[in-house]
Amino acid sequence: MNFKINIEKDIIDLIKIYNNYQFEVGGMIFGTKIFNKYVLKTLSLKKGESVSINFSMKDRIIYQLPEKQKIIGTWHLHPMQYKARPSITDLNQWKKWKKKYIHIICTKNDFKIFDSKGECLYEHNF
Ligand SMILES: [Zn+2]
User: Fold this and answer.
1) Predicted TM-score (pTM) of this structure
2) CA 93 to ligand 1 center in whole angstroms
3) CATH architecture of the region 4-125
4) Is residue 116 within 8 Å of residue 101, measured between CB atoms?
């Protein structure tokens, strides 16, 4: 399938901020989707399950979503990985989301966007 992906600057800025975390965090991607054209506008933040670190209240960033944005996928960090690549767990989870969702995996060096089957749709090197 031919995807068109447009990433707004806020997304890159947020990824750079969230990328300072040394453990897996992630959340949802919000934006618009018309047919196969995705516009990524903002991210929500959720801490990983297997992490023993305390967040302060100010870390709990909650976005007031502008109208007409919807969830178009998920994102999470792979802080120990050099090149973004989905794990078996990721691929199994992605199968459970809507097929049309896209998924960002972000390492210290790059982030990639994958479709639900794990095919890379977009690559960005820092
Ligand atoms: Zn993962």
Assistant:
1) 0.83
2) 9
3) 3-Layer(aba) Sandwich (3.40)
4) yes
